Amino acid sequence: MKSVRILCICLLTVSAVIGNEKCPGVVTVNVSEESDVILPCSLSTNQNLEQKLFDWRKNAPTKQEVFMYDGGLHYNNGRRGQDEHFRGRVSHFPQELQFGNASIIIRNTTVADSGVYTCDFPHLQPEQTFCIKLVVELTLKDRSGEIPGAAPKPFVGILNISEDEALLKCEVRGASPKPKVEWRDSDGNILPAEEPQVSHTGERYDITLLTTVTRTNSSLFHCVATQEEMGHVTRDQIDVRYCEKTSEVKSCCGVGVFIALWFSGVLTVAAVLAASVAAKCIRKHKKASQRNQRDDPSKEACNGDASVTSQL
Predict the structure, then answer these.
(1) What separation in angstroms does the CA of 236 have from each of 88, 169, 183, 194?
(2) Are 242 and 158 in contact (CB under 8 A)?
(3) What is the pTM of this model?
(4) Which one of 2.60.40.10, 1.10.940.10, 3.40.50.300, 2.120.10.30 gives the CATH number of domain 27-137?
(5) What percentage of the chain carries pLDDT values higher than 90?
(6) What SMART domains does UniProt report for this protein, alphabetically (predicted)?
């Protein structure tokens, strides 16, 4: 067992030496996800590369053909062989070739772009290879539906509300890994909250978070669920409208009651007037019937309706 352990260490050491001989220095480039990034590669001699060949490959964690230029022919003007993952996203700097600059730009980077890249000049004497380590950092965004386990949009609501405060509830269900759930005000400040209520089925977590807000806070509040491991964040918001104090004329319920009573009063007055008009019309009709033998009934009309209605 000891000899096997020594052999493994030796193999790793030799492998590292070989790698260092091919790439004496590794340049690390950091970029945020969905940004564009330039991977540098330039000859110290400033040799004109317009009729030369250079080849970009991604060697770690997997081998992929990124960009090849050969005397004017490259992957963006007819040459075949580029890995599908990089197709349409990689280009070089044609005006810089005369100065020995073989750098490339990768657009709209993803986390999958992270790894070690080589820029190789196989026909130069001696052959030259440059290594660049690209690190694409996750940015927090809503990845619901894109990644299994990403927390869905929270459910928010008001459990109780009074004149001065409101008890808010936020529920996040079926998330994996366990998300961080927070209540925030409209300025993004984290609000004090009760201890989260956590339950889980297997690796899926359900979390409920309660907070009490008062009139001193803003009226708009957000519940935010974050899973930094996968760069996922989702949120929902609620606008809290407190009732006015009951001592004031225009309270939350008072306004509604006042409007209802006012509307009811209008209907009552209208009903009384309508009944009065109907009674007057009936009296006129009775008188007209009594004169039926002497006068033409068609000449009688209920003229009182128009006058009363116009008053309304």
Answers:
(1) 36, 11, 10, 19
(2) no
(3) 0.62
(4) 2.60.40.10
(5) 62
(6) IG, IGv
